[in-house]
Amino acid sequence: MPSEADIAMLEPALFALLGRELLRTGSDRTPEGYYRQYGGLIIGGRRVIYVNGFTAKVVHSIDRLMTPWVDWRTVSQTVCGDDPVAFRVEYDPAHRSFSSFDFNR
User: Fold this and answer.
1) What three-state secondary structure class fits 16?
2) Which of 42, 54, 59, 64 has the CB geometry, 3.0–4.6 Å to 86, for a possible disulfide?
3) Residue 14, exposed/middle/buried by CB under 10 A (0-12, 13-18, 19+)?
């Protein structure tokens, strides 16, 4: 699992990346409006942090529709939509770089 230091290192760059991607798509959303989930992966022998992000609208839908024991803070969420309500990206802490950014559409 990523450490708090890992998250602190990636967040400013993720905020900037998300802002650029939102502008590119013409969305009026802002990076502040996204919740995030983090998970650790090993890909090709390298440590990677997987980031799953989604808007408050998604969180409220999850809270309203799911059973009480399903919590977005502890259960990975899969989201589809017709505007950038969710995104995913991989972060390589060794190289401090992102790859595979995608809005879930």
Assistant:
1) helix
2) 54
3) buried
Q: Which residue has the tokens 């939509």?
A: 81
SS3 2: coil
**Listed residue (103, 64, 72) closest to 85, CA to CA:** 103
CA distance 14 to 8: 10
- pLDDT tens digits in sequence order for the chain, 105 residues long: 899 999 999 999 999 999 999 999 999 999 999 999 999 999 999 999 999 998 877 666 655 555 554 666 666 666 655 667 889 999 999 999 999 999 976
Q: Which of 29, 23, 26, 14 is nearest to 85 (CA)?
A: 29
What is the secondary structure of 53-90 as a DSSP string?
EEEHHHHHHHHHHS-TT--TTTS------SSSSEEEEE
The DSSP 8-state label assigned to residue 31 in this structure reads G
